[in-house]
Each structure stands twice: as structure tokens, then as C-alpha cells.
UniProtKB/TrEMBL annotation:
Protein family per UniProt: Belongs to the HARBI1 family.
GO terms for cellular component: nucleus
UniProt keyword list: Hydrolase, Metal-binding, Nuclease, Nucleus
Principal place of residence: nucleus
Organism per entry: Urochloa decumbens
Protein name per the record: DDE Tnp4 domain-containing protein
Length: 443
């Protein structure tokens, strides 16, 4: 009975630490933003830091359990000397569950069909080999006297498979012949390595030359000048958190699905090639898009004057600012305003398609995951980096994997935040109509 009382007291203390229960809007997890690792001003945000403990607290390493009896069938006794200077009579016995690795050995064999490998891991062998080479130094482990280390290829494969399929760790464990907690640890380790090593290379804000190229491509496709990217926000479902529950409650998804839903946000800017140039991950699902933007590193970049002369196009859930170009939201639009909204919708489609491919490739984004809330941003960030790698290397995605997005837009409280931006938008709309680039849908 005293133990139960202590648990209740501890739980109450934790709730007090996060600011007083369900009414608190503060995030119970960390926020990951890609600009942290680039040459941009560091925002005043609760920046992501990888938790030093990767495994689940209540689980022990299944492949390293010591003990003599009670093991399940197919337990194998391994005996090894503890050191070279050790007496022959001083030996350690390690019981290791014998698991089948036939599936992984088949996939990693040279004669395994390329199409099947691509369907399993969402990328071809060459891209997978590049990924292993890039991460090898960070994820490789040394052999010990008791066992050989898990190879780098298998470590990366466990993570990629888990992200691609969203399979429960129990099934991933059986497929790769590893312990459940081992698979969980591998996923977090590889995702952290992707974030630390590959995000600065494959997910970064464009430099001046690249920004000019983006503007030229967007203007050639839509007629809207100065567009450097398109922004969109999607929601990632999560298990109901133990703290700040109301902050993560997603009312719109709950009403549509008739099932209580909780989520965190993934806000990203997409270039003309469908690759992400900025991400902000981890704010609670009840937070509207404009508030997520206000708390992002991209907003810090704009406040420092680094977005001058550039537009980021957003939907109706984003406010019109000096650097965010949003559509007209009022009723009874003029022809020029209709024409402008059409072009914004065409540009926004670039981001919607990119997010649809992101969630289609990495099915773990479509379902609630076993990953702890504080570790989830780095996993989602790794998915974005892997998306960019696949896009840059021309990895085709099976059309059947495409995910139809269901993210509802919310109208910001202050839809127009700049009179100068209002005039600039009116000028763009006027030029689109009178230059013959407006289209005819509104006639």
C-alpha cells in the first residue's frame, strides 16, 4: 500500500511540474527544427536533444539476459572467458534466445530481386548502400568476447523497415531475429545518426543561388514571383500523453473520425522539386498552424531580415505577412483575387503532394507509434531526411502507397498582419489577371 501511495504522489508531482494539468498548452516533448543544424539564427525554442536512454525503462535487453533456467524453447547457452588474464575456472554463461534471421539473410543476399528490395525498404540497393556508408561510423559497434556485433547493414535495415511499414516492434523483432528492446534501441540510434549527420547535408534552407533557382522555377510554373518555398502542416497521431493531455487533443480529427485523437504537428517548407528545405516538428496538435509558424526557427530567420525579397506560400490557415503569401479569405472575391487564389492552390499542391509521398513512403507516420513522445521528433525528422534522399536520387514510389491527407485548415485570428504585404498581394493578383496567366476557372 505505501508503494501505491508513493506512485500516486510521484504522478501528481509530475503533473504539477508541467504546469497544472490539461489546460496547459506547453509542449510535453521537445521540438525539432532543421535550421538548428544550419547557418541560421538559433531560435528561443525548446530545441531537440536526444535522450541518453534509448530503450524502454521497464524492458531489459532481451539478447543479453543472464540466467540459468526458465528460458523459452530454443535457448542457446554460450560460454566465454571474461578476459585473457582470467582463470580458466572463472567463466560466464550467457543465455541467448535462438531467433531465426532467415528473412533478413534472404533480403540481404545478392540474388534477392531489386523490385522486392525496393518494395520492402522504399529505396533501391544503391541508395541503401549509400545510407549505410554514411551512417556506418556513427552506428557501428565492436565485437565483444561474448557475441559479434550486429552489422551496420542490419542496424540500418531494422530502422528503415520500421519507418517504412510502421510494424509493431514485436513483429520487427521476429522478422530480423533480434530482441524487441534491441530493435527499439536500433531505431532510435539510427534516427539520431540520420538527424546529426545527414540532415545538414540533405535538409537545409537554400543558399542565395539555390533560392534564385527556386524562384525562377516557381514563377515559370505559376507566374507568381519571388516564391522560395511552399509551407504545409500535417498532424502525426500519438498515444494519449500522460501530461498536458488537452494540449495534444486534436478536436478536428476526433470529430471527423468519431474517435478520440491526439497528435503532434509536422510543419515543413517544400521546394519545387518536392524536397523539404525546413521542418518544425513536435508542437502539440491543438496548436493552429499560424501559432506553430510563430514558434518556428523560420520565423526567427524572418525576424532577422533573412527572408527579405522572398515569399513562402501557404494556405488559408497561414496569415499574410511580409514573407508569407496567403490566399484571399473573404467572400465575394474579384476576378483578380480568384485568379490569385487559383495560383496559390497550384503552388500549394507541390507541398501537399510532397507530404502525401512522405506519409506514403514512411507508414509509421500514419499510425500511433510505440516511440515515446520525447523521442518522436527525431524519428519524424529522420523520415523527412530519408524522403529528401529518395527524392534526390530519383527513387520512384509505388502509387499504391500514396497517402491521402486529411488535415483541416483553421483560419488565423489575424489573417493580415502587414499592410505592405496586402498591397504586394493585390499587385501580384492584378498582374496575373492582366498578363494572361490567371486561367479561366473563375469565369
Amino acid at each position: 500500500m505505501p508503494k501505491a501511495t508513493n506512485r500516486r504522489r510521484k504522478r501528481g508531482a509530475d503533473e504539477e511540474d508541467v504546469g497544472g494539468g490539461s489546460g496547459n498548452k506547453r509542449s510535453a516533448t521537445s521540438v525539432l527544427t532543421s535550421l538548428d543544424v544550419n547557418d541560421a539564427p538559433r531560435p528561443e525554442l525548446p530545441l531537440f536533444q536526444l535522450n541518453g536512454r534509448h530503450g524502454e525503462d521497464e524492458e531489459e535487453e532481451e539478447e543479453e539476459v543472464t540466467g540459468g533456467g526458465g528460458g523459452s524453447s530454443s535457448a542457446l547457452a554460450v560460454v566465454a572467458a571474461a578476459g585473457s588474464g582470467q582463470s580458466p575456472h572463472q567463466q560466464r554463461r550467457l543465455w541467448v534466445k535462438d531467433r531465426s534471421r532467415a528473412w533478413w539473410e534472404q533480403c540481404s543476399s545478392a540474388d534477392y530481386p531489386e523490385a522486392d528490395f525496393r518494395a520492402a525498404f522504399r529505396m533501391g540497393r544503391s541508395t541503401f548502400a549509400m545510407l549505410c556508408d554514411a551512417l556506418g561510423a556513427a552506428v557501428a559497434k565492436e565485437d565483444t568476447a561474448l557475441r559479434a556485433a550486429i552489422p551496420v547493414r542490419q542496424r540500418v535495415a531494422v530502422c528503415v523497415w520500421r519507418l517504412a511499414t510502421g510494424e509493431p516492434l514485436r513483429l520487427v523483432s521476429k522478422r530480423f531475429g533480434l530482441g524487441i528492446s534491441t530493435c527499439h534501441k536500433l531505431v532510435l540510434e539510427v534516427c539520431a545518426a540520420i538527424r546529426n549527420l545527414l540532415m545538414p547535408r540533405f535538409l537545409r534552407w537554400p543558399d542565395a543561388a539555390a533560392a534564385d533557382a527556386f524562384k525562377a522555377r516557381f514563377q515559370a510554373e505559376s507566374g507568381v514571383p519571388g516564391v522560395v518555398g511552399v509551407i504545409y502542416t500535417t498532424h502525426i497521431p500519438i498515444i494519449a500523453p500522460k501530461v498536458s493531455v488537452a494540449a495534444y487533443f486534436n478536436r478536428r480529427h476526433t470529430e471527423r473520425n468519431h474517435k478520440t485523437s491526439y497528435s503532434i504537428t509536422l510543419q515543413g517548407v517544400v521546394g519545387p522539386d518536392g524536397a523539404f528545405t525546413d521542418v518544425c516538428i513536435g508542437w502539440p496538435g491543438s496548436m493552429p498552424d499560424d501559432q506553430v509558424l510563430d514558434r518556428s526557427a523560420l520565423q526567427q530567420r524572418a525576424a532577422a531580415g533573412m527572408m527579405a525579397g522572398s515569399w513562402v506560400v501557404g494556405g488559408a490557415s497561414f496569415p499574410l505577412t511580409d514573407w508569407v503569401l496567403a490566399p484571399y479569405a473573404q467572400p465575394n472575391l474579384t476576378w483578380a483575387q480568384h485568379a490569385f487564389n487559383e495560383k496559390v492552390a497550384e503552388l500549394r499542391r507541390v507541398a501537399v503532394d510532397a507530404f502525401a509521398r512522405l506519409k506514403g513512403r514512411w507508414a509509421c507516420l500514419q499510425k500511433r507509434t510505440e516511440v515515446k513522445l520525447q523521442d518522436l521528433p527525431v524519428v519524424l525528422g529522420a523520415c523527412c531526411v530519408l524522403h529528401n534522399i529518395c527524392e534526390s536520387r530519383g527513387e520512384e514510389m509505388d502509387p499504391g502507397l500514396r497517402c491521402e491527407l486529411a488535415d483541416d485548415e483553421t483560419v488565423p485570428e489575424n489573417p493580415v498582419r502587414s499592410d505592405g504585404a496586402r498591397k504586394a498581394r493585390d499587385d501580384i493578383a492584378h498582374n496575373l489577371l492582366h498578363s494572361g496567366l490567371a486561367g479561366t476557372k473563375f469565369f
